[in-house]
Write a structure and sequence with these properties.
With about 160 residues, this protein is mainly beta. The protein has one helix and eight strands, in the order αββββββββ.
């Protein structure tokens, strides 16, 4: 019984010391954590997954995010992307709208050419600015012929004044 009392007392002393130390530590405003970039993941799990399909976004070729677009204005969004998977993207691969608050009139678009692994290409979708002012977001993904969406989400973020 005495040993447990000593262990309990030692624990209590350590706990009090730790609490006292915690009171001495202060975080200055410059050490306040800053929010990091938001990584958007695909909320969909449809289609048959292929372990050889993958893609990364390289650059916005046209209409960078937060570009002002007039209400009802037609525009073409183009992205430069790279096939980082181990199989070629062939007939049946498409760019499909995945989620967001507006599809902006866009339609599923087939890849224009076959894209071998480690090669880059550009893909575009024709869109139209919504009629009401505001900020609009749409996210597009590549989809293989089995219906599985893969790779990084490609964003369209516009502001209608």
């Amino acid at each position: 019984m005495k040993i447990w009392a000593r262990v309990g007392a030692a624990f209590l002393v350590l706990l009090l010391a730790a609490c006292s130390m915690a009171e001495l530590v202060q975080i200055s405003p410059s050490e306040t954590p800053q929010p990091s970039a938001t990584v958007v993941t695909n909320p969909e799990t449809t289609g048959t997954r292929s372990v050889c399909d993958n893609m990364v976004f390289i650059a916005d070729t046209t209409i960078p995010d937060f570009t002002p677009i007039m209400a009802g204005q037609n525009f073409v969004k183009t992205w430069k992307i790279k096939n980082t998977g181990s199989c070629a993207w062939k007939t049946g691969y498409v760019l499909a709208w995945s989620w967001g608050d507006s599809k902006m009139g866009g339609e599923t678009t087939a890849l224009a050419t076959e894209v071998a692994p480690n090669k880059m290409t550009q893909i575009s979708v024709s869109l139209k600015g919504p009629v009401k002012p505001g900020s609009y977001h749409g996210y597009w993904r590549l989809q293989n012929s089995a219906g599985y969406r893969f790779g990084e989400a490609l964003s369209v973020v516009i502001v209608v004044p």
